[in-house]
Design a protein that fits this description.
It comes from Leucobacter weissii. This is FAD-dependent oxidoreductase. Keywords: Oxidoreductase. With about 450 residues, the chain is an alpha/beta fold. Among the domains are: about 180 residues, FAD/NAD(P)-binding domain (3-Layer(bba) Sandwich), CATH 3.50.50; about 80 residues, Orthogonal Bundle (Guanine Nucleotide Dissociation Inhibitor, domain 1). The protein has 14 helices and 20 strands. Strands 1, 2, 10, 11, 12, 13, 14 and 20 form an 8-stranded mixed beta sheet that branches. Strands 8-7-16-17-18-15-19 form a 7-stranded mixed beta sheet. A 3-stranded antiparallel beta sheet has the order 5-9-6. Strand 3 and strand 4 form a beta hairpin. Helix 6 packs across helix 8. The longest helix is centred in the C-terminal third of the chain and has 19 residues. Bound molecules: flavin-adenine dinucleotide. Flavin-adenine dinucleotide binds next to helix 1, strand 5 and helix 14.
Protein backbone atom coordinates (compact mmCIF):
# COMPACT_ATOMS: atom_id res chain seq x y z
CA UNK A 1 0.00 0.00 0.00
CA UNK A 2 1.19 3.53 -0.65
CA UNK A 3 -0.02 6.98 0.30
CA UNK A 4 -1.89 7.44 -3.00
CA UNK A 5 -4.53 4.99 -1.73
CA UNK A 6 -5.44 7.47 0.98
CA UNK A 7 -6.50 11.10 1.37
CA UNK A 8 -4.16 11.53 4.28
CA UNK A 9 -1.41 9.60 6.03
CA UNK A 10 -0.63 9.66 9.76
CA UNK A 11 1.40 7.63 12.20
CA UNK A 12 -1.57 6.84 14.43
CA UNK A 13 -5.34 7.21 14.04
CA UNK A 14 -7.19 7.15 17.37
CA UNK A 15 -10.89 6.35 17.10
CA UNK A 16 -12.81 8.08 19.89
CA UNK A 17 -12.10 11.06 22.15
CA UNK A 18 -13.22 9.75 25.52
CA UNK A 19 -10.65 9.48 28.32
CA UNK A 20 -8.94 6.47 26.70
CA UNK A 21 -8.57 8.15 23.31
CA UNK A 22 -7.51 11.55 24.66
CA UNK A 23 -4.86 10.08 26.93
CA UNK A 24 -3.51 7.80 24.19
CA UNK A 25 -3.40 10.71 21.71
CA UNK A 26 -1.69 13.02 24.20
CA UNK A 27 1.03 10.48 24.93
CA UNK A 28 1.55 9.60 21.27
CA UNK A 29 1.80 13.24 20.23
CA UNK A 30 4.19 14.05 23.05
CA UNK A 31 6.25 11.04 22.05
CA UNK A 32 6.78 12.60 18.62
CA UNK A 33 4.23 10.74 16.49
CA UNK A 34 1.77 12.33 14.08
CA UNK A 35 -1.62 11.54 15.62
CA UNK A 36 -5.17 12.15 14.42
CA UNK A 37 -8.22 11.64 16.66
CA UNK A 38 -11.53 10.84 14.95
CA UNK A 39 -14.59 11.36 17.16
CA UNK A 40 -18.15 10.75 16.03
CA UNK A 41 -19.78 13.07 18.58
CA UNK A 42 -19.66 16.86 18.42
CA UNK A 43 -17.71 16.95 21.69
CA UNK A 44 -14.87 15.19 23.47
CA UNK A 45 -15.39 13.20 26.69
CA UNK A 46 -17.36 10.15 25.50
CA UNK A 47 -19.28 8.77 28.46
CA UNK A 48 -18.33 11.78 30.57
CA UNK A 49 -20.53 14.76 29.73
CA UNK A 50 -21.38 17.83 31.79
CA UNK A 51 -24.53 19.51 30.44
CA UNK A 52 -26.60 22.45 31.66
CA UNK A 53 -29.99 20.91 32.36
CA UNK A 54 -32.73 21.40 34.98
CA UNK A 55 -31.14 24.75 35.81
CA UNK A 56 -27.52 23.78 36.51
CA UNK A 57 -24.56 21.80 35.12
CA UNK A 58 -25.21 18.07 35.59
CA UNK A 59 -23.04 15.04 34.90
CA UNK A 60 -25.03 12.86 32.50
CA UNK A 61 -22.29 10.24 32.48
CA UNK A 62 -19.53 9.61 35.01
CA UNK A 63 -19.64 11.65 38.20
CA UNK A 64 -17.29 10.37 40.91
CA UNK A 65 -13.54 9.83 41.25
CA UNK A 66 -11.27 8.94 44.16
CA UNK A 67 -7.63 9.05 45.14
CA UNK A 68 -7.51 5.25 45.35
CA UNK A 69 -7.87 5.33 41.55
CA UNK A 70 -4.22 5.93 40.65
CA UNK A 71 -4.50 6.75 36.97
CA UNK A 72 -7.31 9.23 37.38
CA UNK A 73 -5.66 10.81 40.38
CA UNK A 74 -2.44 11.43 38.47
CA UNK A 75 -4.48 13.30 35.85
CA UNK A 76 -6.35 15.22 38.57
CA UNK A 77 -2.98 16.39 39.86
CA UNK A 78 -1.60 17.15 36.41
CA UNK A 79 -4.58 19.34 35.49
CA UNK A 80 -5.06 20.91 38.93
CA UNK A 81 -8.53 19.46 39.45
CA UNK A 82 -10.17 19.63 42.87
CA UNK A 83 -12.97 17.55 44.35
CA UNK A 84 -16.30 18.32 45.99
CA UNK A 85 -18.09 15.90 48.22
CA UNK A 86 -21.57 14.74 47.31
CA UNK A 87 -23.77 15.47 50.36
CA UNK A 88 -23.55 13.03 53.25
CA UNK A 89 -26.96 11.51 53.96
CA UNK A 90 -28.94 12.70 56.98
CA UNK A 91 -31.61 10.04 56.37
CA UNK A 92 -31.66 6.55 54.90
CA UNK A 93 -34.63 4.72 53.40
CA UNK A 94 -34.64 1.14 52.20
CA UNK A 95 -36.78 -1.97 51.77
CA UNK A 96 -36.89 -4.68 54.37
CA UNK A 97 -38.24 -8.22 54.20
CA UNK A 98 -41.10 -8.57 51.72
CA UNK A 99 -40.45 -5.08 50.38
CA UNK A 100 -41.64 -3.27 53.53
CA UNK A 101 -40.39 0.36 53.70
CA UNK A 102 -37.80 1.09 56.39
CA UNK A 103 -36.12 4.33 57.48
CA UNK A 104 -33.29 5.25 59.78
CA UNK A 105 -29.93 6.90 59.91
CA UNK A 106 -26.93 6.20 57.74
CA UNK A 107 -25.41 4.39 60.74
CA UNK A 108 -28.51 2.17 61.05
CA UNK A 109 -28.28 1.20 57.40
CA UNK A 110 -24.53 0.58 57.55
CA UNK A 111 -24.98 -1.66 60.59
CA UNK A 112 -27.66 -3.63 58.71
CA UNK A 113 -25.54 -4.29 55.62
CA UNK A 114 -22.11 -4.66 57.25
CA UNK A 115 -22.18 -8.44 57.72
CA UNK A 116 -23.57 -9.15 54.23
CA UNK A 117 -21.17 -6.78 52.48
CA UNK A 118 -18.22 -8.31 54.29
CA UNK A 119 -19.29 -11.89 53.63
CA UNK A 120 -20.08 -11.30 49.96
CA UNK A 121 -16.39 -10.69 49.33
CA UNK A 122 -14.87 -12.42 52.37
CA UNK A 123 -12.53 -14.53 50.23
CA UNK A 124 -11.34 -11.68 47.99
CA UNK A 125 -7.74 -11.99 49.19
CA UNK A 126 -7.57 -15.56 47.80
CA UNK A 127 -9.91 -14.98 44.87
CA UNK A 128 -8.21 -11.85 43.55
CA UNK A 129 -5.05 -11.15 45.55
CA UNK A 130 -3.96 -8.25 43.32
CA UNK A 131 -6.40 -5.72 41.98
CA UNK A 132 -4.04 -5.13 39.06
CA UNK A 133 -4.27 -8.79 38.01
CA UNK A 134 -8.00 -9.51 38.20
CA UNK A 135 -7.82 -12.91 36.49
CA UNK A 136 -5.17 -14.37 38.83
CA UNK A 137 -6.26 -16.39 41.87
CA UNK A 138 -9.26 -18.50 42.77
CA UNK A 139 -11.40 -16.18 40.65
CA UNK A 140 -10.79 -18.64 37.81
CA UNK A 141 -13.15 -21.07 39.59
CA UNK A 142 -15.51 -18.49 41.04
CA UNK A 143 -16.09 -16.46 37.89
CA UNK A 144 -19.01 -18.69 36.89
CA UNK A 145 -21.01 -17.25 39.82
CA UNK A 146 -23.19 -14.16 39.66
CA UNK A 147 -23.49 -11.71 42.54
CA UNK A 148 -27.00 -13.08 43.08
CA UNK A 149 -25.64 -16.66 43.31
CA UNK A 150 -23.33 -15.57 46.12
CA UNK A 151 -26.05 -13.66 48.01
CA UNK A 152 -28.39 -16.64 47.70
CA UNK A 153 -25.77 -18.83 49.39
CA UNK A 154 -24.93 -16.53 52.29
CA UNK A 155 -28.03 -17.37 54.33
CA UNK A 156 -28.63 -13.72 55.34
CA UNK A 157 -31.87 -12.93 57.13
CA UNK A 158 -34.46 -11.42 54.76
CA UNK A 159 -34.09 -7.87 56.17
CA UNK A 160 -30.33 -7.82 55.63
CA UNK A 161 -30.53 -9.64 52.29
CA UNK A 162 -32.92 -7.08 50.77
CA UNK A 163 -30.74 -4.16 51.89
CA UNK A 164 -27.51 -5.78 50.73
CA UNK A 165 -28.90 -6.62 47.30
CA UNK A 166 -30.10 -3.06 46.78
CA UNK A 167 -26.63 -1.67 47.46
CA UNK A 168 -25.03 -3.86 44.82
CA UNK A 169 -27.66 -3.33 42.17
CA UNK A 170 -26.87 0.37 42.45
CA UNK A 171 -23.19 -0.34 41.96
CA UNK A 172 -23.39 -2.71 39.02
CA UNK A 173 -26.21 -1.11 37.04
CA UNK A 174 -27.92 -4.38 36.13
CA UNK A 175 -29.95 -7.17 37.77
CA UNK A 176 -27.66 -9.13 40.10
CA UNK A 177 -28.18 -12.50 38.41
CA UNK A 178 -26.70 -11.00 35.24
CA UNK A 179 -23.48 -9.67 36.80
CA UNK A 180 -20.42 -11.77 37.59
CA UNK A 181 -19.27 -11.95 41.21
CA UNK A 182 -15.92 -10.95 39.72
CA UNK A 183 -17.24 -7.41 39.23
CA UNK A 184 -17.77 -7.09 42.98
CA UNK A 185 -14.37 -8.65 43.67
CA UNK A 186 -12.60 -6.26 41.30
CA UNK A 187 -13.90 -3.17 43.04
CA UNK A 188 -13.10 -4.50 46.48
CA UNK A 189 -9.68 -5.83 45.39
CA UNK A 190 -8.91 -2.35 44.01
CA UNK A 191 -9.61 -0.88 47.45
CA UNK A 192 -7.44 -3.35 49.34
CA UNK A 193 -10.35 -5.56 50.40
CA UNK A 194 -12.02 -2.71 52.32
CA UNK A 195 -15.67 -2.59 51.22
CA UNK A 196 -16.61 0.78 52.87
CA UNK A 197 -13.70 2.37 50.97
CA UNK A 198 -15.03 0.79 47.78
CA UNK A 199 -18.40 2.48 48.41
CA UNK A 200 -16.70 5.80 49.03
CA UNK A 201 -14.49 5.46 45.93
CA UNK A 202 -17.39 4.77 43.61
CA UNK A 203 -19.95 7.36 44.66
CA UNK A 204 -18.69 10.25 46.79
CA UNK A 205 -16.33 12.82 45.25
CA UNK A 206 -17.17 14.88 42.17
CA UNK A 207 -14.58 16.67 40.03
CA UNK A 208 -14.76 20.45 40.59
CA UNK A 209 -15.88 22.33 37.45
CA UNK A 210 -17.12 19.08 35.95
CA UNK A 211 -15.96 16.29 33.72
CA UNK A 212 -16.27 18.23 30.47
CA UNK A 213 -13.82 20.84 31.72
CA UNK A 214 -11.46 18.01 32.74
CA UNK A 215 -11.53 16.43 29.27
CA UNK A 216 -11.31 19.86 27.60
CA UNK A 217 -8.00 20.41 29.41
CA UNK A 218 -6.66 17.01 28.33
CA UNK A 219 -7.78 17.65 24.74
CA UNK A 220 -5.91 20.95 24.83
CA UNK A 221 -2.75 19.01 25.58
CA UNK A 222 -3.06 16.75 22.50
CA UNK A 223 -0.40 17.63 19.90
CA UNK A 224 -2.43 16.62 16.88
CA UNK A 225 -5.82 17.19 15.35
CA UNK A 226 -9.00 16.10 17.13
CA UNK A 227 -11.67 15.92 14.47
CA UNK A 228 -15.21 15.99 15.89
CA UNK A 229 -18.35 14.84 14.11
CA UNK A 230 -16.32 12.22 12.25
CA UNK A 231 -17.67 8.68 12.44
CA UNK A 232 -15.34 5.86 11.48
CA UNK A 233 -17.12 3.19 9.45
CA UNK A 234 -14.29 0.80 8.54
CA UNK A 235 -10.73 -0.18 9.40
CA UNK A 236 -8.97 -2.29 6.81
CA UNK A 237 -5.53 -3.62 7.62
CA UNK A 238 -3.12 -4.01 4.73
CA UNK A 239 0.34 -5.21 5.57
CA UNK A 240 2.08 -2.85 7.95
CA UNK A 241 -0.63 -0.17 7.98
CA UNK A 242 -4.41 0.30 7.87
CA UNK A 243 -6.91 2.38 5.96
CA UNK A 244 -9.46 4.06 8.22
CA UNK A 245 -12.56 5.21 6.39
CA UNK A 246 -14.98 7.80 7.73
CA UNK A 247 -18.72 8.13 7.10
CA UNK A 248 -17.87 11.14 4.93
CA UNK A 249 -15.80 8.90 2.64
CA UNK A 250 -12.36 10.11 3.69
CA UNK A 251 -9.65 7.45 3.71
CA UNK A 252 -6.80 7.84 6.18
CA UNK A 253 -3.72 5.69 6.08
CA UNK A 254 -2.31 4.97 9.56
CA UNK A 255 0.68 2.94 10.68
CA UNK A 256 -1.22 2.12 13.86
CA UNK A 257 -4.91 2.42 14.79
CA UNK A 258 -6.29 2.67 18.32
CA UNK A 259 -9.93 1.67 18.74
CA UNK A 260 -11.39 3.05 21.98
CA UNK A 261 -14.89 1.74 21.36
CA UNK A 262 -16.61 -0.09 24.20
CA UNK A 263 -17.05 -3.83 23.64
CA UNK A 264 -20.79 -3.39 23.08
CA UNK A 265 -20.24 -0.72 20.38
CA UNK A 266 -17.55 -2.28 18.16
CA UNK A 267 -20.18 -3.55 15.74
CA UNK A 268 -20.44 0.09 14.57
CA UNK A 269 -17.20 -0.35 12.58
CA UNK A 270 -16.44 -2.90 9.85
CA UNK A 271 -13.03 -4.38 10.65
CA UNK A 272 -10.97 -6.28 8.11
CA UNK A 273 -9.67 -8.78 9.05
CA UNK A 274 -12.51 -9.33 11.50
CA UNK A 275 -11.93 -8.61 15.18
CA UNK A 276 -10.29 -11.24 17.41
CA UNK A 277 -12.74 -13.83 18.75
CA UNK A 278 -12.98 -12.37 22.27
CA UNK A 279 -14.28 -9.08 20.83
CA UNK A 280 -16.82 -10.79 18.61
CA UNK A 281 -17.95 -13.11 21.40
CA UNK A 282 -18.39 -10.40 24.04
CA UNK A 283 -20.03 -8.05 21.58
CA UNK A 284 -22.55 -10.77 20.68
CA UNK A 285 -23.23 -11.55 24.36
CA UNK A 286 -23.03 -7.87 25.49
CA UNK A 287 -21.45 -7.03 28.84
CA UNK A 288 -23.72 -6.98 31.89
CA UNK A 289 -24.43 -3.29 32.47
CA UNK A 290 -27.89 -2.40 31.21
CA UNK A 291 -29.03 0.41 33.43
CA UNK A 292 -29.79 4.06 33.63
CA UNK A 293 -28.78 7.20 35.45
CA UNK A 294 -31.49 9.83 35.77
CA UNK A 295 -31.52 13.36 37.22
CA UNK A 296 -34.78 14.35 38.90
CA UNK A 297 -35.90 17.78 40.08
CA UNK A 298 -38.27 17.86 43.06
CA UNK A 299 -40.20 20.64 44.75
CA UNK A 300 -38.72 22.18 47.93
CA UNK A 301 -35.47 21.55 49.75
CA UNK A 302 -35.69 17.91 50.72
CA UNK A 303 -33.57 16.55 53.57
CA UNK A 304 -30.31 15.05 52.33
CA UNK A 305 -31.15 11.39 52.06
CA UNK A 306 -30.35 8.27 50.12
CA UNK A 307 -32.97 5.66 49.38
CA UNK A 308 -32.76 2.15 48.03
CA UNK A 309 -35.55 0.17 46.38
CA UNK A 310 -35.03 -3.27 44.82
CA UNK A 311 -33.57 -4.55 41.57
CA UNK A 312 -37.14 -5.07 40.35
CA UNK A 313 -37.96 -1.34 40.51
CA UNK A 314 -37.25 1.21 37.74
CA UNK A 315 -35.15 3.27 40.18
CA UNK A 316 -33.22 1.24 42.71
CA UNK A 317 -31.05 4.05 44.17
CA UNK A 318 -32.03 7.68 44.72
CA UNK A 319 -30.02 10.36 46.49
CA UNK A 320 -30.04 14.09 47.00
CA UNK A 321 -27.21 15.88 45.22
CA UNK A 322 -28.07 19.63 45.10
CA UNK A 323 -30.41 22.19 46.59
CA UNK A 324 -31.28 25.17 44.40
CA UNK A 325 -34.18 27.10 42.96
CA UNK A 326 -36.22 26.53 39.82
CA UNK A 327 -36.98 29.00 37.00
CA UNK A 328 -39.74 30.60 39.14
CA UNK A 329 -37.32 31.12 42.02
CA UNK A 330 -38.99 28.36 44.05
CA UNK A 331 -36.72 26.09 46.11
CA UNK A 332 -36.00 22.75 44.50
CA UNK A 333 -33.85 19.66 45.03
CA UNK A 334 -31.90 17.76 42.40
CA UNK A 335 -31.70 14.04 42.96
CA UNK A 336 -29.71 11.45 41.08
CA UNK A 337 -31.22 8.03 40.52
CA UNK A 338 -29.93 4.75 39.12
CA UNK A 339 -31.91 1.80 37.81
CA UNK A 340 -30.87 -1.66 36.57
CA UNK A 341 -32.78 -1.57 33.25
CA UNK A 342 -32.75 1.49 30.99
CA UNK A 343 -35.98 0.49 29.30
CA UNK A 344 -37.98 0.76 32.55
CA UNK A 345 -37.86 4.55 32.81
CA UNK A 346 -38.33 7.44 30.40
CA UNK A 347 -37.30 10.91 31.67
CA UNK A 348 -39.86 12.54 29.34
CA UNK A 349 -42.71 10.67 31.04
CA UNK A 350 -42.99 12.65 34.28
CA UNK A 351 -45.93 10.61 35.56
CA UNK A 352 -43.83 7.45 35.15
CA UNK A 353 -40.86 9.10 36.88
CA UNK A 354 -43.15 10.23 39.73
CA UNK A 355 -44.41 6.69 40.31
CA UNK A 356 -40.85 5.30 40.14
CA UNK A 357 -39.79 7.87 42.77
CA UNK A 358 -42.82 7.09 44.94
CA UNK A 359 -41.69 3.46 45.02
CA UNK A 360 -38.30 4.51 46.45
CA UNK A 361 -39.38 7.21 48.93
CA UNK A 362 -42.76 8.79 49.51
CA UNK A 363 -43.45 12.52 49.82
CA UNK A 364 -41.44 13.77 46.82
CA UNK A 365 -43.10 15.97 44.19
CA UNK A 366 -41.28 15.54 40.85
CA UNK A 367 -41.16 18.65 38.61
CA UNK A 368 -38.59 17.61 36.01
CA UNK A 369 -36.27 14.84 34.86
CA UNK A 370 -33.46 14.34 32.38
CA UNK A 371 -31.06 11.59 31.32
CA UNK A 372 -29.00 10.33 28.42
CA UNK A 373 -29.78 6.74 27.42
CA UNK A 374 -26.24 5.39 27.05
CA UNK A 375 -27.51 1.85 26.40
CA UNK A 376 -29.52 3.00 23.37
CA UNK A 377 -26.70 5.27 22.13
CA UNK A 378 -24.96 3.39 19.26
CA UNK A 379 -21.63 5.03 20.15
CA UNK A 380 -21.58 3.50 23.64
CA UNK A 381 -24.30 0.84 24.17
CA UNK A 382 -22.92 0.65 27.72
CA UNK A 383 -23.05 2.67 30.93
CA UNK A 384 -20.12 1.62 33.06
CA UNK A 385 -18.95 -1.84 32.10
CA UNK A 386 -19.59 -4.79 34.39
CA UNK A 387 -19.08 -8.35 33.24
CA UNK A 388 -21.47 -11.21 32.97
CA UNK A 389 -20.39 -14.37 34.83
CA UNK A 390 -17.35 -15.90 33.13
CA UNK A 391 -16.51 -13.02 30.79
CA UNK A 392 -13.67 -11.50 32.81
CA UNK A 393 -11.42 -14.52 33.20
CA UNK A 394 -12.27 -15.96 29.79
CA UNK A 395 -11.56 -12.85 27.74
CA UNK A 396 -9.59 -10.09 29.47
CA UNK A 397 -6.13 -11.18 28.29
CA UNK A 398 -7.27 -11.50 24.68
CA UNK A 399 -9.11 -8.18 24.78
CA UNK A 400 -5.83 -6.49 25.73
CA UNK A 401 -3.88 -7.99 22.82
CA UNK A 402 -2.90 -6.07 19.72
CA UNK A 403 -4.35 -7.43 16.46
CA UNK A 404 -1.87 -6.60 13.71
CA UNK A 405 -1.63 -2.79 13.64
CA UNK A 406 -4.90 -2.45 15.57
CA UNK A 407 -4.75 -1.59 19.28
CA UNK A 408 -7.60 -1.54 21.80
CA UNK A 409 -7.75 1.07 24.54
CA UNK A 410 -10.99 1.17 26.50
CA UNK A 411 -12.06 1.08 30.08
CA UNK A 412 -13.61 -2.27 29.16
CA UNK A 413 -10.18 -3.90 28.81
CA UNK A 414 -8.41 -2.26 31.76
CA UNK A 415 -6.82 -4.36 34.47
CA UNK A 416 -7.40 -2.32 37.62
CA UNK A 417 -10.57 -0.16 37.60
CA UNK A 418 -12.20 -1.72 34.52
CA UNK A 419 -15.44 0.12 33.74
CA UNK A 420 -14.30 3.37 35.40
CA UNK A 421 -12.57 6.50 34.13
CA UNK A 422 -9.44 5.22 35.82
CA UNK A 423 -9.52 2.12 33.62
CA UNK A 424 -9.94 4.23 30.48
CA UNK A 425 -6.81 6.21 31.37
CA UNK A 426 -4.88 3.03 32.20
CA UNK A 427 -5.77 1.55 28.81
CA UNK A 428 -4.79 4.72 26.93
CA UNK A 429 -1.41 4.75 28.66
CA UNK A 430 -0.87 1.04 27.98
CA UNK A 431 -1.57 1.24 24.26
CA UNK A 432 0.35 4.49 23.67
CA UNK A 433 3.39 2.93 25.33
CA UNK A 434 3.11 -0.15 23.10
CA UNK A 435 2.86 1.99 19.96
CA UNK A 436 5.75 4.25 20.94
CA UNK A 437 7.88 1.17 21.65
CA UNK A 438 6.98 -0.28 18.24
CA UNK A 439 7.34 2.84 16.09
CA UNK A 440 10.09 4.69 17.94
CA UNK A 441 12.25 1.96 19.48
CA UNK A 442 14.81 3.32 21.91
C1 LIG B 1 -24.20 7.09 33.50
C2 LIG B 1 -22.76 6.73 33.74
C3 LIG B 1 -22.22 6.92 35.00
C4 LIG B 1 -20.87 6.60 35.23
N1 LIG B 1 -20.33 6.88 36.47
C5 LIG B 1 -18.99 6.76 36.64
C6 LIG B 1 -18.38 7.29 37.81
O1 LIG B 1 -19.04 7.89 38.68
N2 LIG B 1 -17.02 7.15 37.93
C7 LIG B 1 -16.26 6.54 36.94
O2 LIG B 1 -15.04 6.45 37.10
N3 LIG B 1 -16.84 6.04 35.82
C8 LIG B 1 -18.18 6.17 35.64
N4 LIG B 1 -18.75 5.77 34.46
C9 LIG B 1 -17.93 5.05 33.48
C10 LIG B 1 -17.02 5.98 32.68
O3 LIG B 1 -17.77 7.06 32.16
C11 LIG B 1 -16.40 5.20 31.53
O4 LIG B 1 -15.81 3.99 31.98
C12 LIG B 1 -15.30 5.97 30.81
O5 LIG B 1 -15.66 7.31 30.61
C13 LIG B 1 -15.02 5.25 29.48
O6 LIG B 1 -14.03 5.94 28.73
P1 LIG B 1 -13.55 5.32 27.35
O7 LIG B 1 -12.67 6.33 26.73
O8 LIG B 1 -13.05 3.94 27.57
O9 LIG B 1 -14.90 5.14 26.48
P2 LIG B 1 -15.89 6.26 25.91
O10 LIG B 1 -15.96 7.42 26.85
O11 LIG B 1 -17.16 5.58 25.59
O12 LIG B 1 -15.15 6.76 24.60
C14 LIG B 1 -15.30 6.13 23.34
C15 LIG B 1 -15.44 7.22 22.30
O13 LIG B 1 -15.53 6.61 21.01
C16 LIG B 1 -16.46 7.34 20.23
N5 LIG B 1 -16.91 6.49 19.13
C17 LIG B 1 -17.68 5.38 19.21
N6 LIG B 1 -17.85 4.85 17.97
C18 LIG B 1 -17.19 5.65 17.11
C19 LIG B 1 -16.98 5.63 15.69
N7 LIG B 1 -17.50 4.67 14.91
N8 LIG B 1 -16.23 6.61 15.12
C20 LIG B 1 -15.69 7.61 15.88
N9 LIG B 1 -15.85 7.67 17.23
C21 LIG B 1 -16.59 6.70 17.83
C22 LIG B 1 -17.55 7.68 21.22
O14 LIG B 1 -18.36 8.75 20.78
C23 LIG B 1 -16.73 8.03 22.46
O15 LIG B 1 -16.43 9.41 22.52
C24 LIG B 1 -20.08 6.07 34.20
C25 LIG B 1 -20.63 5.90 32.92
C26 LIG B 1 -21.95 6.24 32.70
C27 LIG B 1 -22.51 6.08 31.31
Amino acid sequence: MNDTDADRSVDVAVIGAGFAGLIAARELGRGGLDVLVLEARDRVGGRTWTEHRLGRPLELGANWVHWVQPHVWAEMTRYGRGIERSPAAEEAHWRGAGGAPRSGTLADFTALINDGQRRLVADVAEAMPRGTEPTVGAIGELDRLSIQDRFDRLGLDPEALAANESVWVGHVNAPLDRVGLSSAYRWVAATGGHWPLMHEASATFRVSEGMSEFTRLIAGDVRGEIRLGTTVVSVEQRGDAAIVETAGGERIRARRVVSTLPVNAVRGIRFSPELPSAWRRQNAEAVASDGTKIWIRARGHLPRFFAYATQHDPISVLKVEFHGSDEDGEPCTLLVGFGPDHSRIDPDDLAGVQSAVDAVRSGIRVTGATAHDWMADPLSRTTWMTHRPGQLTRDLAELQETAGVLHFATSDNASLWGGFIDGAIESGLRESRRILDALLPR
